[in-house]
Amino acid sequence: MNKDEIIKKATEYVNLFGYIQWNELKTINFDNDSSTWIVSFSAKQNDTSDIFSYTLEIDEVSGDISNMQMIDD
Questions:
Q1: Does pTM surpass 0.90?
Q2: What is the pLDDT of residues 20-48, one digit of tens each?
Q3: Domain span holding position 59
Q4: SS3 23
Q5: One-character DSSP codes across 25-72
Q6: Coil, helix or strand for 2?
Q7: 24: buried, middle or exposed (CB in 10 Å: 19+, 13-18, 0-12)?
Q8: Which of 9, 25, 48, 52 is the most exposed place for a label (fewest CB within 10 A)?
Q9: Burial class (CB in 10 A: 0-12, 13-18, 19+), 25
């Protein structure tokens, strides 16, 4: 997968939750040791419009998404 495909997959995944919407990509990095894309982004809460930072991981081989976490800025 290339970066554009990863960003699209991450955006679609985040927007599925219903209580947050993808806002902005912060960083995207590939970890060669684990063959995992690490995506940092901001998302807006639908009920308050507050913006929070998150990370998630996408497995290069399977495309599985895991470890979505809110992080402190």
A1: yes
A2: 999 999 999 999 999 999 999 999 999 99
A3: 3-71
A4: strand
A5: EEEEEEETTTTEEEEEEEEEETTT--EEEEEEEEETTT--EEEEEEE-
A6: coil
A7: exposed
A8: 48
A9: middle
